[in-house]
Design goal:
The complex is a heterodimer. By secondary structure, chain A is of the alpha/beta class. Chain A has a domain of 169 residues: P-loop containing nucleotide triphosphate hydrolases (Rossmann fold, 3-Layer(aba) Sandwich). Chain A has 9 helices and 10 strands. Chain A has a 6-stranded mixed β-sheet, with helices on both faces. The longest helix of chain A has 18 residues. The relative contact order of chain A is 0.18. Chain B is an all-alpha fold. Chain B has 12 helices and no strands. In chain B, helix 2 crosses helix 6, helix 4 runs antiparallel to helix 10 and helix 7 runs parallel beside helix 11. Classes of the chains: A alpha/beta, B mainly alpha.
């Protein structure tokens, strides 16, 4: 496991005019660990992920990813990270195989054909490789997008709702695959999700966001205990409805 | 902007591969590339045949209208090849994936130039063959002047295409009609079918700032007087260098603004 944190964020903030999307966000993620971002709609999860990828420039603060200052040396970092989100698609008219080939080229993946075969096998995409991405079901698209996210064997993986449109069986397989990949590669993972069971199962630590700020943080089991609840979902509902009393 | 190196070429190659897949996967798109230029040539070909019989001016150079139509189409296709192909990324909501990858904005622009060149060669090439088969006008007999005219006009198209792409990045797909409208706004001032001396004086001044007006002047010089007018070709090239630099600057600036305002994740249909 690398000693350099996968992510080190200090006082991160994003404002759109007078609207504060994210404020005073500071956290570290060690490589080989999974961090969950929890929060209701508009809590700042996707904004935070976008800033961690360099797709969105922060208003304040600093971001170090894999030891590099993301704002200064974004292009040193980007070949080593990747992401998946249901809010961003792949080109619809290209087949899954063509999409993966293009992204393998963009990320400079060596032996791209063998990497695509490997991912297709692992993610059950073999029968879909020659099908246009736009003709896939929502669940199939999610798996194809996940394959794109792993094409470069990222050292940091940013996932926004990775199992949102999957049936329980496929979602469970994907989580298992993700856990195996993360443990084998030592990659850091940031996971934004509304699925509390998924977060409890996968995440070593959780940051709970509310109105763009950190509401609380800790290991899932510790948060459940701290709030005197039985599940993380109950803790989440307390936070979302402003019922938390400590 | 960083220099072009192996990684840059590989990423540009990946983007070109992406656009070639798109083209290969849809035969209507390939037909469409040649359809409009060919229809233009049919129209201008018949008009030329009629006018040559009734105009001593046009009788001196029967192919001048066809050459003008073909070369105008180079600029038009060149512009669409950049802007409309860029729109594909917005239609498919793919910008977030692209710019979370190591792809730089200037590498995307480079890939768009190359795919625009390919699309223009297909479309205008078919139209040129058509002009030869049906109207016996071999535009390639213009020789190296044709190459100079082609490059000047396509580069002007690229510059406009980048500005249009930048505006769409800034204002969203609601501005996509600019791709079709922008180039027609300068058509009357470009001296395509007539010398710019026929324009009112203030418009002549504007026309003199357009590379296309010098290119079409050189075209008429060759076809009417059989003279290679080197000076207007260089003037067009110098203006094009300026406009292409401006186009790239606008595109890169709007790309940076998109990162400030969060548009790379949100833009799409």
């Amino acid at each position: 496991m690398s000693e350099v944190p996968a992510i080190s964020v200090t006082d991160l903030g994003k404002r759109y005019g007078t609207v504060t999307a994210v404020a005073s966000l500071s956290f570290d993620l060690e490589s080989g660990r999974v961090l969950g971002l929890l929060g209701g709609n508009g809590a700042g999860k996707t904004t935070t992920l976008a800033m961690l990828m360099g797709l969105l420039l922060p208003t304040t603060g600093s971001i170090r990813v894999l030891g590099e200052d993301l704002l200064r040396h974004r292009y040193r970092v980007l070949p080593r990270i990747n992401f998946s989100s249901p809010y961003v698609d792949l080109p619809h008219r290209l087949t899954v195989h063509q999409n993966l080939r293009v992204y393998a080229g963009l990320y400079g993946v060596r032996k791209a054909a063998s990497r695509i075969r490997e991912l297709a096998h692992d993610l059950d995409l073999e029968g879909l490789l020659d099908r246009p991405y736009g003709r896939l079901s929502a669940g199939q698209k999610t798996r194809a997008s996940f394959a794109k996210a792993l094409i470069n064997r990222p050292q940091l993986l940013l996932l926004d709702e990775p199992t949102a449109s999957l049936d329980p069986d496929t979602a469970d397989r994907l989580r298992t695959y993700l856990r195996d990949y993360q443990q084998a590669s030592g990659a850091g993972v940031v996971l934004a999700s509304h699925n509390m069971l998924e977060v409890e199962r996968l995440c070593d630590e959780v940051i709970m966001l509310r109105h763009g700020r950190i509401f609380d943080r800790g290991a899932p089991v510790d948060l459940v205990g701290k709030y005197g609840r039985d599940t993380l979902e109950e803790v989440f509902l307390d936070m979302a409805r402003g019922r938390s009393q400590l | 902007m960083t220099g072009i190196h192996g990684g840059s070429l590989r990423r540009m190659g990946a983007m070109i591969e992406r656009y070639v897949y798109l083209l290969k996967g849809s035969w209507p798109r390939i037909i469409e590339l040649a359809y409009w230029p060919t229809m233009q040539i049919i129209l201008w070909g018949f008009l030329s045949e009629y006018l040559v019989r009734h105009s001593s001016y046009l009788a001196q150079a029967s192919g001048v209208l066809l050459a003008a139509a073909l070369l105008w189409d180079v600029m038009f296709r060149g512009q669409l090849g950049v802007s409309v192909v860029f729109f594909e990324e917005l239609y498919s909501r793919n910008l977030g994936h692209l710019f979370a990858s190591p792809l730089r904005a200037h590498e995307l622009a480079g890939a768009l130039f190359i795919i625009s060149l390919l699309r223009t060669l297909i479309g205008s090439g078919m139209a040129a063959l058509f002009a030869y088969w049906f109207y016996h006008f071999p535009i390639w007999q213009m020789g190296f002047v044709l190459v100079a005219l082609f490059m000047n006009l396509i580069v002007m198209g690229w510059a406009i295409g980048l500005v249009v792409a930048g505006l769409v990045l800034r204002y969203g797909l609601g501005a996509e009609n600019l791709a079709w409208a922008a180039i027609f706004a300068i058509a009357p001032l470009s001296g395509i079918y007539y010398p710019i001396s026929v324009l009112p004086h203030p418009l002549q001044v504007v026309a003199q700032a357009l590379p296309a007006s010098y290119a079409f002047e050189a075209m008429r010089g060759l076809l009417f007087h059989h003279v290679v007018m080197v000076r207007p070709l260089w003037e067009a090239a110098a203006l094009n260098a300026l406009y292409l630099a401006l186009g790239i600057a606008v595109f890169l600036r709007t790309f940076r603004d998109a990162r400030v305002h969060g548009r790379l994740l949100n833009l799409g249909e």
